[in-house]
Amino acid sequence: MTKPRVRWHIAVFLAPAVLIYSAVMIFPLFNTLRLALYSRVDQERIFTGLDNFRTLFFDPIWAEQFWNALGNNFWFFLVHMLVQNPIGIALAAILSHPRLRFAALYRSAIFIPTILSFVIIGFAWKLILSPIWGIAPSMLDAVGLKSLFAPWLGKEEYALTTLALISVWQFVGIPMMLIYAALLSIPEEILEAGEIDGITGLAAFWKIKLPLILPSIGIISILTFVGNFNAFDLIYASQGALAGPDYSTDILGTFMYRTFFGFQLQLGDPHMGSAIAGAMFAIILVGVCIYLFGIQTRMRRYQL
Amino acid sequence: MNKARTNPLNAFAMHGALILYTLIALFPVFVILINSFKTRKAIFREPLALPDADSFSMIGYQTALKQGDFFLYFQNSLIVTVASLALVLLFGAMAAYALSEYRFKGNTLMGLYLALGIMIPIRIGTVAILEMMVATGLVNTLWALILVYTAQGLPLAVFILSEFMKQVSDDLKNAGRIDGLSEYTIFFRLVLPLVRPAMATVAVFNMIPIWNDLWFPLILAPAEETKTLTLGSQVFIGQFVTDWNAVLSALSMAILPVLILYVIFSRQLIRGITSGAVK
């Protein structure tokens, strides 16, 4: 017997992907977590353990910004879960109706905002909501609701919710498509069996389809969570790095950018930036673990 | 026949809801596009009117093209997107083939390792990525962006493609082996052409986030000659905030290429998403 020869081709097939992925993604990820444990003192990098995290969580100046950004981020996520996903599911439910005409046309049109960049979206809405241009107030005027108008993006109490709704408007296409795909994969026999038992229309949706698409709703929730907790572009594009007015739209992404890169008078600090990245990593990890171990394994799956 | 399924009132309500939402989705894009072709006066006087002979003007486009190097930005975006996609597809397919075709020690572990990146966003590692790019002198080159986007796209590509490669028939590959083809020839000549639809799905999935990204161009390649279209329009608009003609034209110029690509690829994209590639 000869020894099994080394199958070099396996290594050749794997090498490029593994090298790039390890060097540009995994290594920097851990390196960032490591950098969070250092500080720069007099041009020298010294190990300070968890000091940066202590500063971030407990130092009055830092902590206020951090908890503000974290709270805003949770609100941002909540708005997505409560508005984006239900609308997406409702649209998908209508679109998947077997005898609907022009379904492909609606689907493509509703997906258009999703393909545009945050920069475009951010500015477009900024212009439309701007009191200078007056599209939003004059449209509200047309339906007699002019008194409701306010410069939403400029008011502390509305700005974050407005931005979250803009983001919802942009991304509704994703839950819509994924749920639509899930709904299409439900076999016709199941729905027919329900019909024979007298379950039709809305009842069929609540009692048959919804339980069957729960796993997809789970996936959408975790995608939304991860996406929201590393969001940055929309807020940076429409409100700038200071996430105004008065930090009311600051989320973890913008906070990390400001800290790490510096902005105006504030000097950049890569180590504090890494600490914030570490906190984001922990939050996302906890979210993903809750999903994988708490939700996904417990969800009832039906064999279709 | 079932009543609920054919009720005309129901159909009416469904179309009503869809039309309403379609209008909401398209309205801002429409307003930006029509106003970019109008004079400054017309933009403010009748923002919702279509441009006519009186109000038509290309002044915004002239300013934007003179002041910002939009062709260069566009070219940069195109190079970065195409190169990253090519690398993601090639390396992703190779790794997916290794994982799905051969049994070797650590196969499952390697699969899990590569799948880590699906859930963890690469942005978390930005600080160290910037440090590495500075150390290797890649800052302000398109290569920095290409490498980052390749790394970002690989996990999902490997995951999706290996699902598809498992479906390629063993008989075909074994026939190739009997004919004396090398493993490389089997992969490139027999397997790759068969998973082309899956590759297209991966490509459209990766295209949009790469093209639209603002974070990495802002941090890794903010120099004038490496600006991507997204960053370029962001900076341009920031400088010309008060010149509404220029801002609206810049926005339109950023929207149009994506919109055209979307019209061409939308069928592929939607089929990709709904074919259950993401489970």
TrEMBL record, chain A:
One of its GO terms (biological process) is transmembrane transport. Keywords: Cell membrane, Membrane, Transmembrane, Transmembrane helix, Transport. Residues 70-293 form the ABC transmembrane type-1 domain. The chain crosses the membrane at residues 12-30, 74-96, 108-128, 158-183, 212-232, 275-294. InterPro entries: ABC_transporter_permease, MetI-like, MetI-like_sf. It comes from the Bacteria. Its main location: membrane. It is a multi-pass membrane protein. One of its GO terms (cellular component) is plasma membrane. It holds the Pfam family BPD_transp_1. It is found in: Cell membrane. PANTHER family: ABC TRANSPORTER PERMEASE PROTEIN, INNER MEMBRANE ABC TRANSPORTER PERMEASE PROTEIN YCJO. Belongs to the binding-protein-dependent transport system permease family. This is Lactose transport system permease protein LacF. It comes from Phaeobacter italicus.
